[in-house]
Design a protein that fits this description.
Residues 251-287 form the FPG-type domain. By secondary structure, this protein is of the alpha+beta class. The protein contains six helices and ten strands. The two termini are 27 Å apart. The structure holds a DNA duplex.
Length: 287
DNA sequence: CTCTACTCCTGTTGGC
DNA sequence: TGCCAACAGGAGTAGA
């Protein structure tokens, strides 16, 4: 579910509750998500201070004062939400108010400041791991990731270099996290529509001028989505529980049979399946 | 190396 | 109302 804009929105929402604060109590309510949790995860987290929350691709990294970093991935349906951040003082009451734990609340952090951070993930495609902060970049899940699309390394030049000779459809190639990290099904569809590139085009056959537009539109759509707090279709929520609202700005995603929003275009949005996933596009203005 | 199909899991939706 | 298939924002892995 969550692509780069959703993960960045969650990171920003968690920061006020977590950064600079110790995890007073970490509760791990099941042994695994997609993979088993690391050994003694709850003990290694309890008492640790979160020095910094950062993001790499669709991963959140919490750098701890213990010398370790907590790696978090939300998978398809993962949520991290904060409660009790601005809890009012209640005389005679020690604990802040938090909602009752719900189904699929797998990991809970009670922060020393009183906030509670809850990781909820019905499908359990999410993941958590702990590793030394110094070697975090070489973690198996991070080592092969391509550049951040909003960073300086990403450019049309980079796209041209990596797409040269590739015969696979551009849609599938942009979903490959080794090419560029952080895009998912929604934002690939949206960026290709904005760049007027057909999702079935071979990656290596896209003209340099088109790649200029594509690189620009990838950055723009991600930035706009971050500003909107991400896209909420089903599970995704911001850290405060609110919906994102970029879904109202989709031009093609989940808009099959609707008119193409490109000015002057009379096309209709179509849906096809590529490598098992839905692609939405306009066959009239995407070539 | 490149590419596709399959897999993990739960929940929701749409057709009959 | 019930049943069942299709589908969902990810991504590692096996195999062609």
């Amino acid at each position: 579910m969550p692509e780069l804009p959703e993960v960045e929105t969650v990171r920003r929402g968690l920061a006020p509750a977590m950064e600079g604060q110790r995890i007073a109590l970490a509760e791990v309510r099941r042994p695994d998500l997609r993979w088993p949790f690391p050994e003694r995860m709850a003990e290694r987290l309890t008492g640790a201070r979160v020095d910094r929350l950062r993001r790499r691709s669709k991963y959140i990294l919490a750098d701890l004062d213990t010398g370790e970093s907590l790696l978090i991935h939300l998978g398809m349906s993962g949520r991290m939400t904060v409660s009790g951040l601005a809890a009012p003082y209640v005389p005679g009451q020690f604990h802040h108010q938090h909602p009752m734990p719900e189904k699929h609340d797998h990991v809970v952090f009670d922060m020393e400041g009183g906030a509670r951070v809850t990781f909820n993930d019905p499908r359990r495609f999410g993941a958590m791991d702990l590793m030394p902060t110094a070697t975090a970049d070489s973690h198996p899940l991070l080592a092969a990731l391509g550049p951040e699309p909003l960073g300086n390394e990403f450019s049309a030049d980079l796209l041209a270099l990596k797409l040269a000779g590739r015969k696979g459809p551009i849609k599938a190639l942009l979903l490959d996290q080794k090419l560029v990290a952080g895009l998912g099904n929604i934002y690939v569809c949206e960026a290709l529509h904005r760049a007027h590139i057909h999702p079935e085009r071979a990656g290596g056959k896209i003209a340099r001028a088109e790649l200029d537009v594509l690189a620009t539109e990838i950055r723009l759509v991600l930035q706009e989505a971050i500003e909107a707090g991400g896209s909420s279709l089903r599970d995704y929520r911001q850290a405060d529980g609110e919906l994102g609202y970029f879904q109202h700005s989709f031009r093609v995603y989940d808009r099959e049979t609707q008119p193409c929003p490109t000015p002057g275009c009379t096309g209709t949005i179509a849906r096809i399946v590529q490598s098992g996933r839905s692609s939405y596009y306009c066959s009239r203005c995407q070539r």
